[in-house]
Amino acid sequence: MSTYPDQWEYETLRVPRGATKKESTDPKAELNELGAEGWELTGSIDYTGGGGTKFLLFKRPSDGAD
Question: What is the percentage of the chain residues whose pLDDT exceeds 70?
């Protein structure tokens, strides 16, 4: 018997940028909020050609209501 859910739902968080748009700012508050809602960080999407992370990817088990 599998302990994994049959369906997942996904969320993304755009990494916040500072005033110059070149440095990222600490997303700790947003990460804690998503974690409290049951979201688990699973990966990231980087900018094409470097320059850091554009999106953080999250998943959680789906309740099937959607």
Answer: 70
